[in-house]
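pasting for ref
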Amino acid sequence: MASSVAIVILNWNGKRYLEKFLPFVASCGYPDMELIVADNASTDDSVAWLKATWPSVRVVQLPVNYGFAKGYNEALKQVAADYYFLLNSDVEVTPHFLEPMVALLDNDPTIGACQPKIRMYDDKSRFEYAGAAGGWLDALGYPFARGRIFDFCETDHGQYDDIQPVFWASGAALLVRGRLYHELGGLDEFFFAHQEEIDFCWRLQLAGYTVMVCPPAVVYHVGGGTLPKGNELKVFLNFRNNLVMLAKNLPLHQSVWKIPLRFFLDSISAWKSLFDGQRTYFKAILEAHIGFMGWLLIRRHKSVFPKIKTGKPKGWYPGSVVWQHFVKGKKHFSEIVGGNK
């Protein structure tokens, strides 16, 4: 008997994506699947269109735009399944993409979550920014992925087709055990959006579970559908949330020096952007640092902290991906991680 999977698409004014990509999801061929669209108080006619066109799809209507993290938390309170598959509305799935991922988790109860291989929708030969072939983290908390270093995305030649542990799985296409999602407190709602899946996967690993990438499953992601690259809010959330994530999950003896160092490195990036004429980027990083200090001093209670810290995370690069990429000019994951795979 197949494990039950609830595919949950969080939607906000994304009718154009639902029209284009929902048919692929509905026809993916998994035998025990419920398809759900959780609507974050869209102001377009997404909900009316869904109810008229897709009566087989369950619509969970949220009263306000809760963002990615709280939006999923609120929606998943109303969903029961062995596995949740969190799926962005701007993703084209391939036939039978779920089977290899479900089999992977079914066969190993220590695996808590996994992701498929994610390629660009507009250039299907290249890895996509949001996850590529599985996410890693460097010693200072900078995320990168197998196939994507900062803004450079590699062409997929099958070089990362092995199933293996990673640090984080992309929130654009994330399969997670339903029980664990709730036991660990779900996504951190303080984050609103951006890097909440990395934080969740970190807590998952600290609790003793493994996060995997399953390249036999492939999807294609448009990316940047809600907040475009370079958007001030997106920059703010990425920088603030990354610092919050470090403060929550690192051991104290590491966070006391790594976070000040990150402040310094972030500031270099901010001042460089200002001299390059990118005032919005400078302003967003300054606001992110202020936002982090506000969280640290008065808003920590709004976050979800690891319940256990005994697990040893995989997919952790002990060096600096910033140094390797921007100073030494390395663009490929295999050049940087090498024997640490």
